[in-house]
Amino acid sequence: MARVLTPRAEDFPRWYQDLIAKAKLADNGPVRGTMVIRPAGYAIWERMQAEMDARIKAAGAENAYFPLFIPESYLKREAEHVEGFSPELAVVTHGGGKQLAEPVVVRPTSETVIGEFMAKWIDSYRDLPLLLNQWANVVRWELRPRVFLRTSEFLWQEGHTAHATREDARAYARRILHEAYEDLMVNVLGIPVVVGLKTARERFAGATATYTCEGMMGDGKALQLGTSHELGQNFAKAFDISYSSAEGGREHAWTTSWGTSTRMLGGLIMCHGDDNGLRVPPKLAPVQAYVMVVKDGEGVREAAVKLHDALRDAGVRVALDDRTDTPFGRRAVDAELRGYPVRVEVGPRDLAAGNAVVVRRTDGSKSPVPVADVVGAVLAALDADQQALHDQALAFRRSRTTDVATLAEAIEAAATGWARVPWSAVGVQGEAEANGQGVTVRCLLRADGSVPDSEDEPDLVAVLARAY
């Protein structure tokens, strides 16, 4: 292949920007920090949405929609929340040519407005749990934007729930963390995430606990791919989300919130991409098999159409490229850039021998396959390459993760990857010191790798890294 991307090893950030542009995934928007998601990128996001939406609904949540504009006073009701988001807020002061009586905030997240309506809708313990999710856009004014990773406006889902007990709220926040987020990221996106507890310094503004899914990118840095929060009764008290208990008393609810966003697209690119472009895991790919007519010849186009239809009938998401007026090499490069898992190349020479060529994006292999066997070969390749991408990413993470004993060693190891260090060797003071050198505590784990309930548990392991 002709070199169309800056090599990852030479300049990883430039490679990332090159890939987004050349694969036609997105463009920068007209306002600094905004982005235009192009059809190729949006098709992947739609697949992420569909897979995530199914998991959220399986967990019992229902979709709703809440306003983009939130009264500024709502945010001020929960002190930690407004303090945490103040630097990122976009505030509207004028509308219809007049100054507004009260400024309104363009939603950075919806705990406050949804809390207002939860208080209205919940009366009795019979109304609980209330499990809501919305697909929306949010605005957080970003000082150092990067497409998909940090933009002033992005797309996401945000879930918000209310429960009768702290135990029920915690169990639900954990259920979403594992059954929706971790399951999607590992089994569909092929990204082996570390799931853990955020420290008090890193948790969501207004939360009592934040759980996270952290993925390692191709340069050894970490990316937070999704978070689930226990909000305790902080928002319930601020918005009077209360209910009549079975015993007849009045109690405040316990609430949660949780979200994933178009940042997952950036994570997909940086975790699986290579010097030839994107590599999309087959379960996620909008186009799993790309049937290409190499050049015109007797029966070639007809054979390509038959293979396309046979793959479609076998349940494969398939597309046909018969644009023989465009050079084949250019079309093949574009297919590599976009990361189609399998290409089926149909040309006169191979067809004369009764074959088509099956090209696998994950390892670049090219194999002549009898036309009658193409569907089976494609299905086998899709299964194998879904696992292969996950396994490659896991092997890379393990190779770039170092177990150390001290904070100084952890900061040094974070120059090239992740460090695992006893939390007792870091602590609050050590975390501040690490932050001063561009290193953060990504999450805390128990010794067995499970998610702790509190950072005060004994013998916890801290994962430190540089992050996006």
UniProtKB/TrEMBL annotation:
Keywords: Aminoacyl-tRNA synthetase, ATP-binding, Cytoplasm, Ligase, Nucleotide-binding, Protein biosynthesis
EC numbers: 6.1.1.15
Described purpose of this protein according to its UniProt entry: Catalyzes the attachment of proline to tRNA(Pro) in a two-step reaction: proline is first activated by ATP to form Pro-AMP and then transferred to the acceptor end of tRNA(Pro).
Domain-level remarks: Consists of three domains: the N-terminal catalytic domain, the anticodon-binding domain and the C-terminal extension.
Residue ranges occupied by any Aminoacyl-transfer RNA synthetases class-II family profile domain in the UniProt entry: 32-281
Compartments (UniProt record): Cytoplasm
Catalysis performed (reactions): tRNA(Pro) + L-proline + ATP = L-prolyl-tRNA(Pro) + AMP + diphosphate
Subunit (UniProt): Homodimer.
InterPro entries listed in its UniProt record: aa-tRNA-synt_IIb (IPR002314), aa-tRNA-synth_II (IPR006195), aa-tRNA-synth_II/BPL/LPL (IPR045864), Anticodon-bd (IPR004154), Anticodon-bd_dom_sf (IPR036621), Pro-tRNA-ligase_IIa (IPR002316), Pro-tRNA-ligase_IIa_arc-type (IPR004499), Pro-tRNA_ligase_II_C (IPR016061)
Key word Cell membrane present: no
Taxonomic lineage: Bacteria, Bacillati, Actinomycetota, Actinomycetes, Micromonosporales
Domain of life: Bacteria
GO CC annotations on file: aminoacyl-tRNA synthetase multienzyme complex; cytoplasm
Family named by the database record: Belongs to the class-II aminoacyl-tRNA synthetase family. ProS type 3 subfamily.
BP GO annotations: prolyl-tRNA aminoacylation
Name of the protein in question: Proline--tRNA ligase
Keyword Membrane: no
PROSITE patterns: AA_TRNA_LIGASE_II
A GO MF label: ATP binding
